[in-house]
Every structure is written in structure tokens, then in C-alpha cells.
């Protein structure tokens, strides 16, 4: 987009907002219809909220969508990740490697298993875990790598898979941001040993509060089921007969009791809602993709600003959960990102600098004796420069749920207006 001959007065300086009234439905999510309400009411009226019959159908549909053999529903994505780690053999004294730039739930479940989290830096462009940094951190204690497809941008799975296979460690995909994301034509969650995802109400595939584990590995599926699903292990419960044919004698000897001591089944209001949401997800995801790429195209040529999106063939951003833009202060007269975002908010654009705070800087990973074992050893914080730099190099942008050209253009124009003002030195 090109700037006008005379820069318009910024709203920050008393000028009119670039974004005036916006239809709230442009951002409202999830989309709930009478079909969703009917599915939930059916479960409520039948009194089967703690059953698993609806959940089993949801699992079948999720497995079919991903083209995998198994899906196992959980009460949240954190539980699915913990079960996956345990199923992959993560135990006391082991290590997992994961990115510092992610939500705590991607990695913190390892602490409950007595394992240590080793943080790797991220790639500047993708904001995903850097395979080269992963490899240099592998030790004989490494049991798994956690690849988080951050904000829906697919990780470099070719390199991560090669590293995992060569070092004989498991590769866990965290798909919580990336429902429907494609990497070279393959769905996120289907390339590693196991994929896990949150389905909470803020995600792009939003089902309330739930999680899902998917895999083609029967052993991982059996172990995950035995870890937190007591009614799946051969011991019938009040709500369901045994439904999983677990054959591993190491697991069947404990039938009827969850090995992890957790009850991780999905609430059936979630699975009922999830089935309807999944039914319409492809269409809704496609519209989000059109809308966000329209927005990104309108930002092309704007100084200092670039939408964070994948532009490789047969790759996609899925549902675009938590979209971001890259910020180059050097192109904008050195303006700090905080001031830039302040000017954008004055124009009517919701935004904030940075993203998740890097986990490697959090004290919980450097000496918290969570269970009073006295075995925690304080470790020196290693600097991860790219992860630590995101606070000044990226900012959040609107997440459009509908492809409405006029409304989207207003937001792009606002960013263009502020960026050109910054380049001219009009923001201090």
C-alpha cells in the first residue's frame, strides 16, 4: 500500500480513528448455532454427561479427519500432553526438549513425571523450535522432543523427524494452535509419534474445555488410555463398559485403575459440541484463511510490518490461532514497539507487543521443589536470544473470523497509516 502525499493526523494526536464501527461478529468465536445447542441438550437431557458413548464417536471422527488409527479424548490439552509424554516413556530423571516460546502446558506436564525440561531457541522467521538448537541439546537422558506449531505456523518437521529418528527419541506434536495446519500436504499432529491438542473455547477448533491425543502407534494409544482412563482398561465403570482392547500385560494387570492416578476423560458436553464444530470446521477454517491472507496481502509493502504467515507450497496456517505480525523498528525510525502498538490501539486496532513470555526465564523451571522431594537443583539460566527478542519484534493483530473485504481493509489501512507516520518520524 502506498502512503498519501500528506500524512493523515493520527488518532493518537487527535485525528479521527481509522477503524470506526465494526460488526462484532467479525471476531466472535466460536460460532454456535441451534445444531450445537441441540447436541448439548441431548446429552444433558439423557443425563450422560459422564458417559463415553458420544466421546467415542467424536474420537472416531477426529481420527478419520487426521487419517490416523487412534484418537483419545481428554478433559483438556494439558492432560493429553502429559499422557503422551508418559506413553512415550518419559520418567523420573529423563529430559524433554521443547521451545521456550509457548504456553506453559506444552512442557510443564513433564515436571509431574519427574523429568527435566530443556529449552531450545526458536527460528526468527517461523517462531518455532529451531531444529539445529534441538540437536545440540540432546543427551543420553533425552526421551522426547516437543514440537509446538506456534500460532498455526508449521514446524520444520522434516528436520525434526530426521533428528528424532537418528537419536532414537520420540517426537510429540503440540497442535493446540494448529488445528488443520498443513505441512507439505500433511496435517499437523500426524507426522510425529503422537499429536496432542487443546480444544478449549479460545482455540480455532473450539469445543469448550477439552483435549485430544492422536497417533498411529498402538502402544502409545494403549499406554495413554491406561494412564488416565480407568474405564478404558478392561475394568467397567458405572458409566461405561470397557471399550479399549488393551493387550499389553504390563498394563492389563492394573485394569480398572488409571496408572497415572488421574481421571482424564472428556466431559460429554464437550464431545457433543466438538462433533458439531468439527462438522463445520473445514468451511469456517477456509474462510478464516481467506480473511487473514487478504489482510496479509493488504499489508504487503507497509514499512516495518509483515504478517506472520507461511508461504510455502502445500503448507497452511490452519485456523490462524493468535495471529501475529513481525515488527522491524529499524524501518520505522527506531520507534519502540510499545509506542507503535499504542498508536494502533488509538486507531481502533486491538494489539499488544510480544506474545508468550519465554518459559526458560520463569523461576518454576529453576529450582521449584513442587513435591517436596528435595531433589531439585537450581540451574543457571541459559540465554535464548531469539526467544527473548520477540517482545520487541512481534505484535498481535486482529483475528478475523469472516472474509469481509471492507472491514478488513479498514484495519490494514490503520496499520499502514501508523507505519508511514512512524517512518516519517511523526510518532515520539
Task: Describe the overall structure.
It is a single chain. The protein has 428 residues and is an alpha/beta fold. The protein folds into 2 domains: 11-31 and 281-423, Aspartate Aminotransferase, domain 1 (Alpha-Beta Complex), CATH 3.90.1150.10; 34-275, Type I PLP-dependent aspartate aminotransferase-like (Major domain) (Aspartate Aminotransferase, domain 2). The protein contains 12 helices and 12 strands. It has helices spanning 34-46, 53-66, 77-87, 109-112, 131-136, 157-167, 218-228, 249-252, 268-299, 337-346, 385-389, 405-423, and strands at residues 70-74, 95-99, 116-120, 142-148, 170-174, 182-183, 186-187, 194-198, 211-215, 305-307, 324-327, 394-396. The protein has a 7-stranded mixed sheet, sandwiched between helices. The mean pLDDT is 93.
Amino acid at each position: 500500500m502506498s502512503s498519501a502525499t500528506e500524512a493523515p493526523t493520527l488518532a493518537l494526536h487527535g485525528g479521527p480513528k481509522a477503524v470506526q464501527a465494526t460488526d462484532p461478529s467479525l471476531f466472535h468465536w466460536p460460532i454456535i448455532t441451534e445444531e450445537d445447542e441441540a447436541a448439548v441438550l441431548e446429552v444433558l437431557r439423557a443425563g450422560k454427561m459422564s458417559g463415553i458413548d458420544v466421546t467415542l464417536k467424536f474420537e472416531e471422527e477426529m481420527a478419520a479427519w487426521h487419517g490416523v488409527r487412534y484418537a483419545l479424548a481428554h478433559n483438556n490439552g494439558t492432560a493429553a500432553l502429559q499422557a503422551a509424554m508418559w506413553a512415550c516413556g518419559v520418567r523420573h530423571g529423563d529430559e524433554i526438549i521443547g521451545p521456550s516460546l509457548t504456553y506453559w502446558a506444552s512442557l510443564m506436564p513433564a515436571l509431574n513425571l519427574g523429568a527435566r525440561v530443556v529449552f531450545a531457541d526458536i527460528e526468527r522467521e517461523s517462531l518455532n523450535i529451531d531444529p539445529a538448537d534441538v540437536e545440540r541439546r540432546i543427551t543420553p537422558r533425552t526421551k522426547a522432543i516437543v514440537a509446538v506449531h506456534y500460532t498455526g505456523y508449521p514446524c520444520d518437521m522434516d528436520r525434526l523427524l530426521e533428528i528424532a529418528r537418528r537419536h532414537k527419541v520420540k517426537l510429540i506434536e503440540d497442535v493446540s494452535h494448529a488445528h488443520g495446519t498443513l505441512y507439505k500436504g500433511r496435517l499437523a499432529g500426524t507426522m510425529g509419534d503422537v499429536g496432542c491438542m487443546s480444544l478449549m473455547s479460545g482455540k480455532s477448533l473450539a469445543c469448550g474445555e477439552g483435549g485430544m491425543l492422536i497417533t498411529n502407534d498402538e502402544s502409545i494409544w494403549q499406554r495413554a488410555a491406561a494412564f488416565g482412563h480407568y474405564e478404558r482398561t478392561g475394568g467397567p465403570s458405572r458409566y461405561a463398559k470397557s471399550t479399549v482392547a488393551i493387550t499389553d500385560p504390563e498394563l492389563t494387570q492394573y485394569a480398572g485403575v488409571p496408572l497415572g492416578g488421574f481421571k482424564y476423560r472428556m466431559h460429554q458436553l464437550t464431545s457433543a459440541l466438538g462433533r458439531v464444530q468439527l462438522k463445520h470446521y473445514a468451511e469456517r477454517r477456509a474462510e478464516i484463511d481467506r480473511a487473514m491472507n487478504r489482510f496479509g496481502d493488504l499489508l504487503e509493502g507497509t514499512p516495518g510490518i509483515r504478517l506472520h504467515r507461511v508461504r510455502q507450497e502445500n503448507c497452511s496456517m490452519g485456523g490462524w490461532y493468535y495471529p501475529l505480525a513481525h515488527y522491524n523498528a529499524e524501518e520505522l525510525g527506531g520507534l519502540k514497539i510499545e509506542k507503535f502498538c499504542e498508536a494502533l490501539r488509538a486507531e481502533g486496532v486491538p494489539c499488544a507487543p510480544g506474545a508468550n513470555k519465554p518459559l526458560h526465564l520463569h523461576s518454576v523451571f529453576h529450582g521449584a521443589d513442587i513435591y517436596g522431594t528435595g531433589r531439585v537443583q537450581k540451574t543457571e539460566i541459559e540465554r535464548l536470544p531469539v526467544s527473548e527478542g520477540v517482545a520487541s519484534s512481534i505484535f498481535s493483530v486482529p483475528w478475523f473470523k469472516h472474509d469481509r473485504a471492507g472491514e478488513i481493509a479498514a484495519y490494514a489501512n490503520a496499520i499502514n497509516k501508523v507505519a508511514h507516520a512512524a517512518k516519517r518520524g511523526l510518532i515520539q
